[in-house]
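Tokens in:
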């Protein structure tokens, strides 16, 4: 796995992965096809799995085969597995290279997932039923025929689109001896990705350096919940464009550009009273390929118009400004406070790609037929592309017309954002032509007045070719704050890739707790050049899970830290970025009590696992050993978890994390109740957080949710003891009074000011000249 064409480099500290994979490369040429039965009790590497070469995570692979002599190459084929239910994905594209000397490689062709041929041999297919659902592994041939070249070295390169890639055979067909009639190897480079060794620069974005993402639209606050509307107000948007101090004064400008984008859904206008009936604005490839109702669910022309009406006209006539109207008013307040009468904030609007599975988009105003984006026997590629472009031009023109009609005094329409985070070579044969058609049209409008940019997710398909697609700039998101398995190395790897291919970097912030604050600090302290952070004119996009920074920047210590850290970062102010809140529970001792203990020996083992609750290792959304796993056979409950801080401190926030996967018999608590005490005898109730009020997000695996029961106090409470009371979640589908089999709890965080240890002196108290006194413990 050496040579040009791969970003799996020893410099990224992936040598362990490289050494393991190189040791099994011979499986690609042993002539043995696997059956796909890699999960039949032998995921430990024995059995059928031992016949596959396997690539794990990270970026792409380039595997070179030395044939031993110059030979005539007529056909190349790579045989790969796909089992989406297990995180095994066939690549979106396989690229083949040939070389005579092993030094200079020539690209001879590519095969997309869309053009790969499904292996119909039943011996190469495996299926099993898990939790009542069929999960399967099947095979695909990525075959390139019709070649007529002499070469000694064959290279196959591919990107990982999932957690794993499994391949069992690399076939090279031809004759061992070279041919006198072979064609000259094509004069194509080993890669068509420009290596610029420079982050995206502000001149690409016409001076914009910090881009904030503002989600406004329709969304699901929890799995299985109802579709809700989230509209942005002046109060929510003001801290996005102005730096508001703790007294509520606007003291500086903040983000200079805001991208508006939806959560990805619109209500079905045919059933406006049914908040469970909705359309998707955008799909990912797995949704398109695995959902039999995809064509009926995906967005129509009516849905696109609904979103634009929401963005430009929501709340008109009510006396309250929302969305773009609200941003215009928020910027007006910043202009007044800073005395800059000419100041404007740039705006970009998300563009929702016309996707392959939509075959009944609807007829546009003045149109002659319902548009069809799908490629089929009755709708050839040329017509599908024409319909996609007609819809795209209508959407872009409508945005510009609506924006101008509003006459915003404080906003400037800078352009658009391509909403999808991956280029679906694997399912859409027109992806390149579609994107290039849209970017070309954007650039043709009003003499190049508008731009369009893209934010691919970490190592997503096509990220290196962002210039080929026609974007003015691209910004990669590391997916660090939302991946419990990601180490800080992810940040450095992302930065190296961004710098190599000329992308900017997205900064993520997932929530207000110790874990996310710690991860956010990693962005800001990873270094200035060869790692992530900051160059004076590099492009950065900022995203938070709920935009809690804007909404609560004045009254939550954790949020205030992030908010202030951002401002320091913008202003170039050196800072140590020290966390203002600590997990006080981690410094104390934990106890767990339960009613109706059924097995004392097993329950005592739970007590030995309590340190996991304060180890900072929050493996979100997967059933693993970071959780304290409570079985219904341990105790019926309820349970009482108590933290003794060892002294009286100030408690500002408490939270207990849990996990839910009803299909696995794992139920999060119906509620968690918190109380505090100074003496361990008299308790004061702080409040109860129900499951409906908890912060819920999808986990790392199908069916999992992370559930955090967060209680933020309006005023700090003095306490030495903090108690959380909870029970097994109840499985209403079986018996309303019966608990789920498993309960998993992870981090127990108590944020605030740590207690002063007995006899500890006061080294400093601001400007108060009190010297170094002894103080009582309290």
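Residues out:
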């Amino acid at each position: 796995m050496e040579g040009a064409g791969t970003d799996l480099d020893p410099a990224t500290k992936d040598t362990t992965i490289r050494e393991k994979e190189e040791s099994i490369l011979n499986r690609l040429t042993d002539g043995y096809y696997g059956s796909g039965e890699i999960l039949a009790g032998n995921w430990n590497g024995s059995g059928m799995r031992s016949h596959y070469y396997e690539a794990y995570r990270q970026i792409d692979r380039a595997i070179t085969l030395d044939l031993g002599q110059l030979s005539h190459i007529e056909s190349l084929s790579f045989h790969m597995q796909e089992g989406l239910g297990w995180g095994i994905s066939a690549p979106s594209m396989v690229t083949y290279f040939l070389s005579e000397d092993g030094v200079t490689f020539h690209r001879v062709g590519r095969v997309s997932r869309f053009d790969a041929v499904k292996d119909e041999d039943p011996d190469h297919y495996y299926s099993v039923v898990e939790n009542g659902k069929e999960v399967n592994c099947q095979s695909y041939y990525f075959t390139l025929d019709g070649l007529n070249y002499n070469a000694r070295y064959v290279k196959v390169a591919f990107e990982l689109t999932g957690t794993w890639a499994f391949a069992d055979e690399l076939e090279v067909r031809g004759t061992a001896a070279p041919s006198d009639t072979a064609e000259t190897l094509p004069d194509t480079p080993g890669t068509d990705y420009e290596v610029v060794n420079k982050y995206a620069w502000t001149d690409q974005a016409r001076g914009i350096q910090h881009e904030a993402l503002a989600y406004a639209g329709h969304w699901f606050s929890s799995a299985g919940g109802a579709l809700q509307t989230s509209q942005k107000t002046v109060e929510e948007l003001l801290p996005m464009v102005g730096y508001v101090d703790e007294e509520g004064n606007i003291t500086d400008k903040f983000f200079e550009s805001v991208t508006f984008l939806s959560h990805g859904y619109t209500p079905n206008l045919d059933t406006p009273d049914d908040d469970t009936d909705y359309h998707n604005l955008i799909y990912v490839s797995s949704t398109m390929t695995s959902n039999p109702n995809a064509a009926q669910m995906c967005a129509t022309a009516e849905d696109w118009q609904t979103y634009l009406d929401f963005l430009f006209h929501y709340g008109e006539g009510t006396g309250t400004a929302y969305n773009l109207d609200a941003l215009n008013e928020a910027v007006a307040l910043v202009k007044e406070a800073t005395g800059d009468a000419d100041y404007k904030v740039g705006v970009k609007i998300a563009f929702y790609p016309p996707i392959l599975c939509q075959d009944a988009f609807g007829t546009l105003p003045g149109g002659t037929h319902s548009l069809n984006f799908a490629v089929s026997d009755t709708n050839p590629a040329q017509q599908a592309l024409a319909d996609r472009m007609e819809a795209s031009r209508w959407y872009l023109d409508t945005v510009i017309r609506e924006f101008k009609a509003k006459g915003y005094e404080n906003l400037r329409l800078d352009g658009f954002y391509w909403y999808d985070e991956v280029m679906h070579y694997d399912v859409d044969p027109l992806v390149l032509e579609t994107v290039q058609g849209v970017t070309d049209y954007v650039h043709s409008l009003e003499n190049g007045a508008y731009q369009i940019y893209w934010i691919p997710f970490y190592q997503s398909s096509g990220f290196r070719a962002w210039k080929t697609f026609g974007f003015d700039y691209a910004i990669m998101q590391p997916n660090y704050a939302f991946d419990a398995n990601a180490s800080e190395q992810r940040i450095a790897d992302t930065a190296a890739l961004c710098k190599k291919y000329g992308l900017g970097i997205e900064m993520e912030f997932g929530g207000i707790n110790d874990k996310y604050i710690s991860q956010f600090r990693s962005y800001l302290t990873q270094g200035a050049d060869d790692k992530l952070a900051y160059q004076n004119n590099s492009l950065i996009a900022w995203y938070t899970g709920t935009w809690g920074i804007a909404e609560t920047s004045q009254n939550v210590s954790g949020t205030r830290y992030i908010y202030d850290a951002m401002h320091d970062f913008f202003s170039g102010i050196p800072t140590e970025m020290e966390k203002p809140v600590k997990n006080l529970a981690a410094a104390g001792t934990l106890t767990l009590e339960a009613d109706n203990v059924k097995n004392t020996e097993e329950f005592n083992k739970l007590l030995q696992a309590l340190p996991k609750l304060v180890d900072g290792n929050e493996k979100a959304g997967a059933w693993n050993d970071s959780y304290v796993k409570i079985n219904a056979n341990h105790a019926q409950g309820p349970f009482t978890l108590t933290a003794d801080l060892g002294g009286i401190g100030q408690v500002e926030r408490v939270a207990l994390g849990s996990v839910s996967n009803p299909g696995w018999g794992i139920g999060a608590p119906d509620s968690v109740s918190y109380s505090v005490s100074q003496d361990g005898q008299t308790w004061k109730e702080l409040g109860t957080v129900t499951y409906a009020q908890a912060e819920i997000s999808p986990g790392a695996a199908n069916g999992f949710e992370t559930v955090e029961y967060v209680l933020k106090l309006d005023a700090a409470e003095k306490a030495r003891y903090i108690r959380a009371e909870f029970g097994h979640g109840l499985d209403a589908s079986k018996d309303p009074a019966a608990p789920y089999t498993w309960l998993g709890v992870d981090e127990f965080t108590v944020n605030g000011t740590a207690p002063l240890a007995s006899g500890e002196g006061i080294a400093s108290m601001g400007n108060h000249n009190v010297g170094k006194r002894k103080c009582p413990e309290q």
